Amino acid sequence: MFTRIIDGRVPGDFVWKDDAVVVFLSIGPLADGHALVVPRAEVDAWTDLPADLLAHVMEVAQLVGKAQLQAFDGDRIGVIVAGFEVPHTHVHVFPATSEAQFDFANAAKDPDRDRLAANGRALRAALRAAGHEATVPAD
């Protein structure tokens, strides 16, 4: 599924694109700005990623998390690597105010599309403001 999003065959609200990873918003967010950091390489388990790619995935997750702190409410940035729902490595990165937000049972089931689009614009703006213009797609 993620490869189809990466290739543009399924729509995704991208906030980051480079040669190794992409970042797009979750369609079942745990919080405003919830994003998925996904390597372009189709590798199921994160433990199977080459060390350099895993390091880059986590570096991008940290940059996205810093931008989320600027763009959204949250005391911390949550990170989850679960991998059960889609067999393609991905890191969930989201603003959090409590550990209760780490439960996927709390994910929005039918999020407002306009709100998701606004969240994408806000996150892209925060990433650009942090100096990452080269990797942030146009609105």
TrEMBL record:
Biological processes annotated in GO: nucleotide metabolic process
Keyword Protein transport: no
Domain HIT: 1-104
InterPro entries recorded: Histidine_triad_HIT, HIT-like, HIT-like_sf
Motif (Histidine triad motif): 88-92
Active site, renumbered: H90 (tele-amp-histidine intermediate)
GO MF annotation list: hydrolase activity
Alphabetical UniProt keywords: Hydrolase
Taxonomic superkingdom: Bacteria
Keyword Aminoacyl-tRNA synthetase carried by entry: no
Pfam families recorded: HIT
This protein's name: Diadenosine tetraphosphate hydrolase
Organism in which the protein naturally occurs: Tersicoccus phoenicis
Record lineage: Bacteria, Bacillati, Actinomycetota, Actinomycetes, Micrococcales
